[in-house]
Structures are given as C-alpha cells and as structure tokens.
Give the backbone structure.
Amino acid sequence: MAVTAGGAPGRTVATYDPPGSENWLTTRLDALINWGRAGSLWPMPFGTACCAIEFMATAATRFDLARFGMERLGYTPRQADVLICAGRVPLKLAPVLRRIWEQMPQPKWCISMGACASSGGMFDNYAVVQGIDTIIPVDVYVPGCPPRPEGLLYGILMLQEKVRRERLRDTETRDEMQVDPDTGLYIPAPAIDELAEPFGNSVHQTRSGL
Amino acid sequence: MSVAQLPGSAAPDYAPVTPRQLPYMNGTPNPSAAALRERFPDAVTRVDVIWGETSVYVDGPRLLEVVRWLHDDRTQRYDYLADITAVEFRDPERPIEAIWHLRSLPFRRFLRLKVELDKRAPLSVESVWPVYKSADWMERECYDMFGITFRGHPDLRRILLWEQYKEGFPLRKDFPLRGRFSRSEQLKQALAAAPESRYSLEELDIAQAFEDLPDDMRRRLAAGEKTGE
C-alpha cells in the first residue's frame, strides 16, 4: 500500500508494506506485554537480615522504588512477581522459602540480594544455606554486604532488561524446575557440594562422612 | 551493707564501680557467696571472683535446692534468672560447665552458679524450671546446643534447630564448624522438614490451655468469639 500525497501525482510520501503480517503482530505483542510486565513488577520482600534494611531504604522516599513501577510491595507470595530475598537464609528457613516460591504465580522472577543470600557470605557454617540458588532458581544476583540501594536498583534494572527480552513463543522460560522426588533438590547433590566447597585453608574443619 | 534492713529498697550505699577499677582475680565476693557457704557447706565447692563477678561452683545434685533457697530466702531474693548456658573447654579432660546467671533486683546483686559435668558420663543436671518458669526456653536452647539433659523439664526438645535435626549438638567442641554432613545432605534434610510439623499439637491446641485463660477471655471464647482473626 502506497500513500500518495494529494495534489502532487506520483510523489510518494510514506510506504507501508509489511512482508508478513503474522510476524509483525507477534513481535509487537511481545513488546507490549513485556513493557507492561517490566514496568509493574510487584516485589515480595523476603527480608531476614541487614539487607532488608537496605531494601527498606530502597523502597523509601530517597531512592523511591516506585519510580520503576514497584510501588506495590506484595507481602503475600500469591500476588507478587519478584521474590527479593534479602539476607542470610538459615537451613531451618529453607523449606519456608521454597514454599513461598511455589506459592507465587507465573510469571515470576527472583532477585538474590546480598552476599549471604547469593553464596552464604561469611556464614560458612552448619546453619546457613550456601546460596539460595540451591533451593529456588535465581534470576539476578546483587553483590554487596549489604548492597547499597543503588546496587539493588541496578539489579532491578537488569531484571527489567531480562523481562523485556523474553519471548512469548519461548515457553521454556515459564517451565517450573522440577525437584527430584527422592531428595527434594533440583540441583544434583555433587553440584551442590561443589558449589559450597570452601575456599582457603578452612577445608580441614569440614565434615566427617555421609 | 546490711541486707536485713532493706528488702525491696533500691538505693545501694556504695558508689558504682566500673570493671576497669576492679582486680582481675580475688575481688570482693558477692555477700551471697558467704551466705551460701554457711547454708550449704558441702554443696558449694569453690568460689571465684573475676572482674568483680562472683561465680559459685555448686554440687550438681543439690543445684535445685540451692537455687530455690536463693530465690525464696528474704536475705537473697534472686528473682530474675538472666541466662542459662554452658562452656566446653578445649582441654578434653576438663568438665563441661553449665552456668546459671541469677540477678537479685531488690539487692542489686549478680551471682553466677556453675555446675561441672563430667564428659564421660551422660550430661545431665537438675532443671530449675520449678523455681523459674523462664528457664523453659533457656534450658531447651542449652539442650539444643550442648546436649545437656535437664531433669524435670516439662518439654525438653530442640528450640533453635528443627526437631528432626540429626547432626548432633553444634556448640560442642567435637562438632565440625560446617556440620557433620555434606552440604547437599544438610539441604536435603532441611527441605524434608515440613515447616508446620515443627509445632506439636499441644502447642496448637487451645482446649488444653483453656483452664489457664483469664475469666473474661474464657467467657468470650465459650460464647463462640473467635481469636486471632
């Protein structure tokens, strides 16, 4: 379809000729939906330690999480999109965190905020989970002890970028990770042990069997 | 300071001192230590004064008797149990010390009781729950961390770790810093513990506690009013 300007015969002003209408429509729908999703993420704060204080600062007036469409903090997992795990997670809390993640509806994302949530941090002992990615899948890791609000905001912007790049056709992104029914883990046990392997000379005080 | 004259009166007749002014050892003992020696000559084995704080070593089987006297006697009135804990030393021959921190609010006194527990025998000591009801959770924590059994405790089970925890007692010296099991095994056991199963039915059953409730609350509950909604 060619649009011709009135008055001047034969002079083309704009041309609109889509090569395939199906592609055109699908791409635009993706962009629209992802724009909506990225701009109105509802976080579910799971704060257990000092990182939660920085999260509160992020949500408060000075840094103002609402600028990024997150003004509604969902304190129920059933009405939330992003789980922000802020702080160390003891082993006793591991089943609780997993239950909360399972209660969140799709689509859902997870931000692991701070060194402790991401790797156990300095708490390399019998009581603390060595990284929440052994319990639930994580999209963005925010380093820091605790991270400044700018750091968390940068992580949120990275998550929004990730959301914008999702494609509706790619259904695998929404597939839930299935846990092994025998162990309750979704990462193989040797991989978890390797992930949690200590650095430095502290290997001497590790474990005795099993 | 004469103790008989002022049960319940607050002002001490001495100027407060900071620990820096006190000698490390052999300071002035708490007057309760002498009173204990007089009252229980064969139960008190040793008295230490470190940085002005008095520790009294008590014979294990007579602990409850000593604590009850400290709580009830009008010249002592230790009405506040601040803490119960224990210490295991690096020297494997040294016994584990179970520790009670007592405070007398009327007389402004602090007293530390210690009981030595031989490691070769099962660790067991009398519970002070009949005297101080606040000992309930403290003794559970001490049992959770050190494995000391408190005889006569109404509900001795783990409090910080989950009840199915199998690795042992974490504050003991033979416990590895990262636990006995591998990380994956720890995670597997933790995830297998259902969060709800940690609460016993007794804790959730309000019917058992019904008789202990105040009158007005009992009336309202009997009339069908719901709580906590």
About this structure: The domain at 1-160 of chain B is CATH 3.30.460.80 (Beta Polymerase; domain 2). Strands of chain B lie at 44-50, 53-58, 80-87, 96-104, 109-117, 124-126, 149-151.
